[in-house]
Amino acid sequence: MSVATPLQLTIRPLTVRDNPAIARVIRHVSAEFGLTADKGYTVADPNLDTLYEVYSKPGHAYWVIEHEGEVVGGGGVAPLQCSEPDICELQKMYFLAQARGQGLAKKLALQALDFAREQGFRRCYLETTASLTQAIALYERLGFEHIDGPLGCTGHVDCEVRMLKNL
């Protein structure tokens, strides 16, 4: 009988060298869950191949999950566009299958929320889709509450699940 051991995964800040790898992860996971560009999901983001440049701005941060030198996931936080200045958005949380189920999404989300508090944000918003049931359950456990309408101008027209958390 063999026993599966957890992978040795590390969370670290995104670097410019990670741009192609995290874009591949996001595209792969999006395809896996049917999150297509024509519906306004992250794969339609014109900045997908230059995330380091996006998240290098003040009030922005992005971390990648790495396994043996390979980027297998990531997530970040940034000010919510077209909204009140005290609201940030949890963004681009994507993990390849081998990085799921090990508590990394929770760890990364908590790190992002701590960063947001340090930046002076008082609320954190997110958008997702109903098919991502595990992600929604995690966000609920983290204290995000479902809200009716969208906030800001994210461009994610098919993200019908919207959640908000007081920081």
Automatic annotation (TrEMBL):
Superkingdom in the source lineage: Bacteria
A GO molecular-function descriptor: acyltransferase activity
InterPro entries according to UniProt: Acyl_CoA_acyltransferase, GNAT_dom, NAT_camello-type
Keyword terms, alphabetized: Acyltransferase, Transferase
Pfam families per the UniProt record, alphabetical: Acetyltransf_1
Protein name: GNAT family N-acetyltransferase
N-acetyltransferase domain residues: 9-167
Entry EC no(s): 2.3.1.-
CDD domains reported in the protein's UniProt record: NAT_SF
Principal EC category: transferase
